[in-house]
Amino acid sequence: MAPMGIRLSPLGVAVFFLLGLGVLYHLYSGFLAGRFSLFGLGSEPAAGEAEVAADGGTVDLREMLAVAVLAAERGGDEVRRVRESNVLHEKSKGKTREGADDKMTSGDVLSNRKMFYLLKTAFPNVQINTEEHVDASDKEVIVWNRKIPEDILKEITAPKEVPAESVTVWIDPLDATQEYTEDLRQYVTTMVCVAVNGKPVLGVIHKPFSEYTAWAMVDGGSNVKARSSYNEKTPKIIVSRSHAGMVKQVTLQTFGNQTSIIPAGGAGYKVLALLDVPDMTQEKADLYIHVTYIKKWDICAGNAILKALGGHMTTLNGEEISYTGSDGIEGGLLASIRMNHQALVRKLPDLEKSGH
Ligand SMILES: Nc1ncnc2c1ncn2[C@@H]1O[C@H](COP(=O)(O)O)[C@@H](OP(=O)(O)O)[C@H]1O
Ligand SMILES: [Mg+2]
Fold first, then answer.
1. Tell me: the pLDDT tens digits for 247-289?
2. Distance from the CA of 267 to the center of ligand 2, in angstroms?
3. According to CATH, where is 3.40.190.80 located in the chain?
4. ipTM score of the complex?
5. 177 assigned to active site
6. Residue 50 CA to chain centroid, in angstroms?
7. DSSP letters along 145-197, please?
8. Please, which residues have CB less than 5 A from ligand 2, an ion?
9. For 58-223, CATH number?
10. Which of 193, 298, 316 has most ligand 1 atoms within 8 Å of its beta carbon, as the pocket-test mutant?
11. Tell me: domain 226-347, CATH 2.30.30.100, correct?
């Protein structure tokens, strides 16, 4: 008689073991792929990141882009309405480091309120940094209808999920406030930027007075493109007209007296000057240079758009800008597209050493 007990066939054990492995692999890879489609925004997620996503949830960057476009346009409606009423309630928030008035108007405040609450209501778990103070007692809940516009769906064909905690949104409710008060409407933009782990990944720049909107997502798509050629040798350089600092001296010293300088308002406007923008009021330039202190809501959207189109925005020393933490950057700005950006950095004088 055979001994009592269960006989395990070696083949049965092997099949059982392999099946178990298959199930484990399926669960593990499916879970990570679903939660972290980081599409080149960083390396494979570390074990600890699963915890982060589980706490704050994930957000879809394609949905964020749809809301960002809507927010920039709704904010732009406020900007236009206030300008057309001619009652701006212009105030000074203080002085910039260089002693210029840091201005604010009803256009800034009302646009800020629309843009902030639209984004905050749609994405309550993400960090939003905005130029103007948000008055919690003056809350306005605008509900997004969850529709993604066709032009976005056409370019970006799948959702792009990232952990909510990795996201920082930057809102500029009215860029070129100084020019807005002077009724130089062409320079005015509203902007939204989304950074993931500090890297700018999507940007929206809207011109309320031309009703033109540019958007782009890194590794996603865009509704705007670079021009076909740029003059690298004697570039046309677009610079600030109201926060210029020593920018003229720096550019002429670097590129020679033949180079033409275009003074213009707004960081959003100046980035659009580097692109192929079908707007009659938009000037064109080959490079954008800024030498004074500047805030991240002024530059993040432009940085994301340039990066998505293969261009660059860095400090004058060529350092990448991180869009988390502090609001401002000290090292000036150099923005270029379809040029050898590092060669341009090497050409520029070291601002700290040269005392500019
Ligand atoms: N030195 C500085 N200090 C503070 N803000 C500055 C600055 N230089 C530029 N900016 C801000 O950057 C934006 C673009 O500047 P410019 O038009 O001079 O190129 C403007 O944003 P806002 O209009 O949103 O305040 C301006 O206030
Ligand atoms: Mg601004």
1. 999 999 999 998 999 999 999 999 999 999 999 999 999 999 9
2. 7
3. 226-347
4. 0.98
5. yes
6. 25
7. --PPPHHHHHH--S--EEEGGGEEEEEEEEE-HHHHHTT-GGG-EEEEEEEET
8. 172, 175, 298
9. 3.30.540.10
10. 298
11. no
